[in-house]
Specification:
- The protein is of the alpha/beta class.
- It folds into 2 domains: about 240 residues, 3-Layer(aba) Sandwich (Rossmann fold), CATH 3.40.50; about 60 residues, Arc Repressor Mutant, subunit A, CATH 1.10.10.
- The longest helix is centred in the middle third of the chain and has 18 residues.
- The radius of gyration is 21 Å and the shape is globular.
């Protein structure tokens, strides 16, 4: 028998799959919107998520911002665009749906029609955050049921996977003033928890954030993902020392293939953190060498670009 991972079509290996609904919950200010913006960009462009998790093909993404101005998202995109090429043809972003109340059937129908009109072919819909979609919040079972039914309707109409940003319960404190740690600080009705097929708790760490899997209906998700956060680029990544050298080189080449820019050997070494000797060996690897084109060469400096071919990941 084939495994569940083989049967389910991955959008992001070990993280997001077709026909599923993923919820990421975090305390306020942890950075769930910053992380989801990065994931949306990497999906739309076809880059490995967090520098490692394979995206089999570029995806069409709708990012629905349900509170505050869309300007915040635009500012994040501007910062990311200095590091990553962004495929804007695959990325739709809107705050227009904030005006609709999905508790009203006629406005829900308007929302579904608007999504199909604006983005007729979708792979993933991000909703950031979900609690703003329902007046009165999602703790009440009745409101949570209406929300679940609405999302089921949207998913059936679009065929897209759903990615929810959500908040956790308010922190509680002990007699000494310390925060009482909870294994799963989920906020909302149990009907909401039952609705999603997978969920992660996003927790702050000293150097970034950590994804802790709290639900996995199909046994396909990573149990933990620990990420480093770079304040300058506003990007999260799996620490380089946990990524095989060949995958670091391939990830660098993927970016260069997408943005079409040339590069030198020294630029590759600096970006990947791979030592010079290993980098030279990897450029001769059977999965890499046929893809490299030497644009110009001198005694001390070669300039390369990446040609056609597949740079599929070996990490699972």
């Amino acid at each position: 028998m084939t495994s569940a991972k083989d049967q389910r079509e991955a959008i992001v290996e070990g993280f997001l799959y077709k026909h599923t609904c993923l919820m990421v919950a975090a305390d306020p200010g942890i950075g769930k919107s910053t992380v989801s913006t990065q994931v949306a960009v990497e999906l739309a462009t076809g880059l490995p998520v967090f520098g490692v998790l394979e995206v089999p093909r570029p995806c069409t993404v709708l990012y629905i911002q349900t509170e505050r101005s869309i300007l915040e998202f635009a500012e994040r995109l501007e910062t990311i665009s200095k590091i990553y090429p962004i495929n804007f043809e695959n990325l739709y972003v809107t705050d227009e749906y904030q005006k609709l109340n999905i508790m009203r059937p006629e406005q829900l129908e308007t929302l579904v029609s608007a999504i199909l009109r604006d983005c007729p072919k979708l792979d993933v819909i991000f909703i950031d955050p979900i609690y703003s979609m329902v007046l009165g919040g999602l703790k009440d079972e009745g409101r949570a049921t209406v929300f679940n039914n609405a999302m089921n309707m949207i998913q059936k109409a679009t065929g897209a996977a759903l990615y929810y940003n959500h908040h956790t319960v308010k922190s509680q404190y002990n007699h000494d003033g310390g925060v009482i740690e909870k294994d799963d600080p989920f906020y909302g009705s149990q009907w909401l928890k039952a609705h999603v097929t997978g969920s992660f708790y996003l927790k702050k760490t000293d150097g970034g954030v950590k994804f802790l899997c709290k639900k996995d209906n199909y046994h396909v998700l990573h149990k933990t993902l620990e990420l480093e956060y770079d304040e300058e680029t506003q990007l999260c990544s799996i620490p380089k020392d946990e990524i095989p050298a060949i995958e670091r080189v391939k990830n660098f080449l993927r970016v260069k293939k997408i943005d079409g820019k040339t590069f030198t050997f020294n630029e590759l070494v600096l970006s990947t953190g791979v030592c010079t000797r290993t980098a030279r060996k990897l450029l001769m690897h059977s999965s890499i060498r046929p893809l490299l084109i030497v644009v110009s060469a001198s005694k001390n400096r070669h300039i390369y670009r990446v040609g056609g071919g597949d740079l599929s990941s070996a990490v699972h």
